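quick one before i forget lol
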Amino acid sequence: MAQVGVKGLFAVCLVCGLAFLRPTHAGGAETYPSRPIRLVHGYPGSSSDTNARYIAQKLTDLLGQQIIVDAKPGATGSIAADFVAKSAPDGYTLLATPSSALGSTPHLRKVPFNTLRDFAPIAPTAVYSFMLAAHPSVPARNARELIALAKTRRVSLTYSTTGVGSAYHLAGVLFSTMAGIELLHVPYGASGTSAMMDLVSGRTDLGLNSPVFLLPQVRAGKIRAIGVTGSRRMSSAPDVPTIAESGLPGYEMVGWQGILAPAGTPKEIVAELNTAIQKIMNAPDTRKRWDEGGLEVAFATPEQFTATLRVDYDRYGKLIKKIGGGIEQ
């Protein structure tokens, strides 16, 4: 089965001091941007939200126009994605999204947009591993022990995520499929807070979520980290092993966050926004902030980001098709 890996996802950009250009459109038209830009996302209260707001402020400083963050929650990010897909392709309405909203959700339910035709990918902004954690009542400290425990249980262990079709959900599906065990998925709201709180209270046995939410609870001793889903340990939690090294060889899944525009947006606008985002990603304060949140700074050209989106869309589709009815609705 094809895996979603960090190394093949994006090249982490190490080039600093990029020139920032402000092109004028053909025919002497006004310089972009000449008015505020709306940055839409579908996950209020999540890391996508906080990161979008950070990037919006930095873009405001670079572009000289206000970047307004507009949360449109619902349907696992589809409402926000559809709003942007149907907006004018003029660079004044952008989408900030995690990979799952465009990669997995369209394979799970009918959505009013086409991932591969309706967007102009601009740039990725982060690559990240997920974290699998357990309530202290679960007698397992690593993936190997968790798999052994699940195989002896008459009642399936439960795991919480932010929703059906989320990358966290599919990471759990991939884990159970590769391990040959059954886990019961318990979907929550997109923010991740409810899923995390029910894990802390013991209402669910396990949780797959962002390290941003889980690490503080792990450090407080309220939950136990089982492993991270990426190919290597996180610098912000070097004592937490990968799932692959702690009992399930070959397991790997990561996510990304990125910014896209409606299809048909002029290439010079996409290029200008890409350059600005690259400059933000290379700033030391961004690198520090991302590292503290368990994220990796990422960068790709619009063409590379487009290729990544297509690859992920196909990979998620194959995973969902393979497990078929195994996804809880």
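fyi Residues 1 and 9 are 16 Å apart (CA to CA).
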